[in-house]
Amino acid sequence: MEYVRKLMDRVSVEGVKIELLNTAYGNGNTFLAKLDPRTLFAWYLYFGIAPWFIHDVVLLIGLFLFMTVTTIMSRVSPLIIFILCLGLLSQAGYLLVVSWIFGGGWDTILPLLVLTTKLSVISMASITVFCSMDPEKLSDGLLSIGVPKQVSFGIAYGYRMLPSLLEEYHHIFLSFRLRGVAPKRHGILYWRSIAYFLKIAVLSFYPLILSIAKRTRTTVEALEAKGFSYAYQSPEVKKNKLSYMKFTIRDGLFITVSALYVCLLYLFAASYTF
């Protein structure tokens, strides 16, 4: 019972908010978090795209194992891992059921498993990279590789605002429940209660949208009053903002080990056919 209670605490809105904050700001002491953002982007350029063009099962399994190690190194939140596993299992399960209904055999199941492995590798690579950078570092990294300033700032701002918006949505949802009338009978398989909560969940988005518009306008006015547009158009300001970013031995070691592992993996796959 104690384990169930702790699990429910994590599933609560406050627990989700804490997990989001830990994902955004709680991984600053890991090895990957100390790398230059441009190094992580270059690393992700291969591991986030190459699996789509790889059909060798041995290569995919090797990449999957490597991504598992990097995901563990980045200390990803259990909530993120749970969402990833839930998405992959639901998609794979749906495809397997459809293939079974239409008479598919092993020849059909194997390509589906290969596709799931590809999605797993790409998803874990994305988690490894973006969970290893706090919003400010991610924004600066995108700015340094030429991403428009509005996009880089928008990503950082979204990271910062997401926990607050989640909490505000929860308050709006509770206010609807407080002022509404719940069904007196649950119905078969609780369909009345489920429909009631789904209706409240949809209605809660409308006040939230208005609140987001108000927050955005206030933020824009505050930034413009402090010279935001001029600062982002000034090369000197951009240079000073990104002056802390530099490549170190740690970056070279990470890229070298990753490249060496991939080369050895290709050699092993060439000598072993699944």
TrEMBL record:
It is found in: Membrane. CDD domains: EcfT. Its main location: membrane. Pfam families: CbiQ. The chain crosses the membrane at residues 41-67, 79-102, 108-130, 188-209, 252-272. InterPro entries: ABC/ECF_trnsptr_transmembrane. It is a multi-pass membrane protein. It comes from the Bacteria. This is Energy-coupling factor transport system permease protein. One of its GO terms (cellular component) is plasma membrane. Keywords: Membrane, Transmembrane, Transmembrane helix.
